[in-house]
Design brief:
Layout lengths: L43 H9 L6 E2 L1 H8 L7 E8 L3 H4 L4 H5 L4 E6 L10 H14 L6 E4 L8 H12 L3 E6 L5 H12 L19 E4 L5 E4 L2 E2 L5 H4 L2 H7 L8 E5 L3 E5 L3 E7 L3 E6 L6 E5 H11 L9 H4 L5 E8 L5 E5 L3 E5 L5 E8 L4 E5 L3
Parallel strand pairs: 1-8, 2-3, 2-5, 3-4, 5-7
Antiparallel strand pairs: 6-7, 9-12, 10-11, 10-13, 11-17, 12-16, 14-17, 15-16, 15-18
């Protein structure tokens, strides 16, 4: 319970309606204890929007996020879905289409600055379109962008202006995809913050979303980031996050492998080439994560003896918080052009067309799958 000055119990943020709490800064309704007496009593995220034109990232679990999404299909809305190109399948909101109904969806594909400079952007856009179709998501527009480098944001804002009409704008996405950067840009370009942030102007709105008033009476709705437990970014401890998530453009690493060879990606996961003709594999991972090659027959012993030391991150201390590994066996058909995708860690491109039997060992719960090659 939060007791501001005056002795009355206040449970809800006056801005977004979220239950106020002091414990978790990255959850809805966070209010520093020293700010509990201010008027109006609003959470830190609403305070930043109102006073600094800046939104802070918050997160909710999957069930709570789906509850929040439930209202969009009944609204006149434009939905901006932000995904991370480095973790495309891991950050795409599965089943979004059934929540948004017939409302238009703009897919903002963020972090394109991480891809090699020789990337063919037209081919990448076509790849994204095919993947959206595979996942049942209809998009009115796909915009490739980089929040960090401010690439493509002008085009994204133009697309929003062309598509919005008389609609509210809902911004949705998983954690760590760059959602707050876009929200902050929208606030600067579209909002009138002379009006107090409040849900009272929007009857029937769901709690835990921040409504940022627009000049025409509509709003930008900042939804909390969804936490997907199958992403490495949700599993690793904070000190390892900067190693797993790349900050600089990926430098593809090519390995010529014979069957019976293994690659360790630090101590995070392992890739086994079990059976197949000599061929090359290209790893697209953070440059801070060291790769160690060994024979498959020695792999178990190497991990047992050197996890947390030679094979790190994670450190020995961090290993205590990581789930045990699960083995995923993946057969690559002859003539295919496939990636082996490990959510939040990157992917391995199979360069040959001879076919291969492979396996990935990753912490339990991490999503591992095959897909058509991105690059």
């Amino acid at each position: 319970m939060i007791e501001p000055a005056g002795g009355q119990d206040i449970k809800k943020c006056r801005g977004c309606g979220a239950a106020l709490q002091h414990e978790s800064q990255d959850k809805p309704g966070y209010l520093p204890e020293k700010a509990a007496g201010r008027e109006p009593v609003i959470c830190q995220r609403c305070f930043r929007i109102k006073n600094y034109n800046e939104a802070a990232a918050v997160a909710v679990d999957q069930d709570e996020f789906l509850r929040l999404l439930g209202q969009i299909g009944n609204q006149e809305a434009l939905v901006i879905h932000i995904v991370d190109i480095f973790d495309f399948e891991g950050s795409l909101i599965s089943g979004l289409q059934r929540f948004v109904g017939n409302n238009p969806v703009i897919l903002a594909v963020n972090k394109i600055d991480l891809l090699p400079k020789v990337t063919n952007w037209n081919k990448l856009r076509n790849w994204v379109q095919r993947q959206c179709k595979e996942h049942g998501l209809r998009t009115s527009e796909i915009v490739l962008c980089s929040a960090k480098k401010n690439q493509g944001f002008d085009r994204l804002l133009e697309t929003i202006a062309e598509t919005r009409g008389d609609r509210d704008v809902y911004v949705v996405g998983a954690t760590n995809v760059g959602k707050s950067t876009l929200i902050n840009r929208l606030i600067r370009d579209y909002s009138d913050l002379d009006e107090e942030l409040t849900t009272s102007r929007y009857p029937g709105t769901t709690l835990d979303m921040v409504h940022i008033p627009l000049d025409d009476g509509r709003a930008i709705i900042d939804t909390p980031g969804i936490v997907y437990p199958w992403r490495f970014s949700e599993l690793v401890v904070r000190e390892d996050l900067g190693v797993v998530m790349p900050e600089n453009p990926l430098k593809p690493l090519v390995y010529q492998l014979d069957e019976g060879q293994t690659l360790f990606f630090g101590g995070m996961c392992r890739f086994d080439f079990i059976q197949g003709a000599h061929q090359s594999f290209t790893a697209f991972i953070s440059g801070s994560l060291k790769i160690h090659r060994t024979k498959l027959e020695r792999a178990d012993a190497l991990y047992a003896d050197h996890a947390g030391e030679l094979l790190s991150p994670p450190s020995k201390k961090s290993l205590e918080h990581m789930p045990d590994w699960t083995r995923h066996e993946l057969r690559i058909p002859k003539g295919s052009n496939w990636d082996i995708f490990i959510s939040g860690l990157g992917w391995i491109k199979v360069n040959g067309d001879q076919g291969a039997l492979t396996a990935v060992h990753a912490p339990k719960g991490v999503r591992v799958l095959t897909r058509p090659s991105m690059i």
